[in-house]
Design a protein that fits this description.
With 141 residues, this protein is an alpha+beta fold. The protein contains three helices and eight strands; from the N terminus they run βαββααβββββ. It has a four-stranded antiparallel β-sheet with strand order 1-4-2-3. Strands 5-6-7-8 form a four-stranded antiparallel β-sheet, with no helix packed on it. β5 and β6 form a beta hairpin.
Length: 141
Amino acid sequence: TLFRSYSLDTGEEGDRTVAMAIANPERFVLKPQREGGGNNIYGEEIKHVLEKPNALTERTSYILMDKIRPQPIRNYLLKAGSDLRLSECISELGIFGVYVRQGKNMILNERAGHLLRTKSTEHADGGVAAGVAVLDNPYLI
């Protein structure tokens, strides 16, 4: 991965991570460790979550990641039921892979596709299923 994630387990390493996040919350995103995406926590809200009285036990249900800061571009987003409008947008490219092994023997390790999502910079969280982002195609030059 290009961006680092940090453990919030109980103990010294997790305590250092919490201190780092509280000191510079704008550098990070706090992500719940569950399926479905969304519900990410940003900025000053990270401090509120990690400073709660029960934070020591609850923090292990999250991971802390470096916040990605892509360069916005102006683009049109086309969504069903919405007017076409020019927006400041950011895109996220996901590369899928397949890795299969049997014991110590690697059977398969290959790229399996990609997904490009684009959304307006006005939305901090949410994806295609939430109606915030649109599916996109990379234009390779």
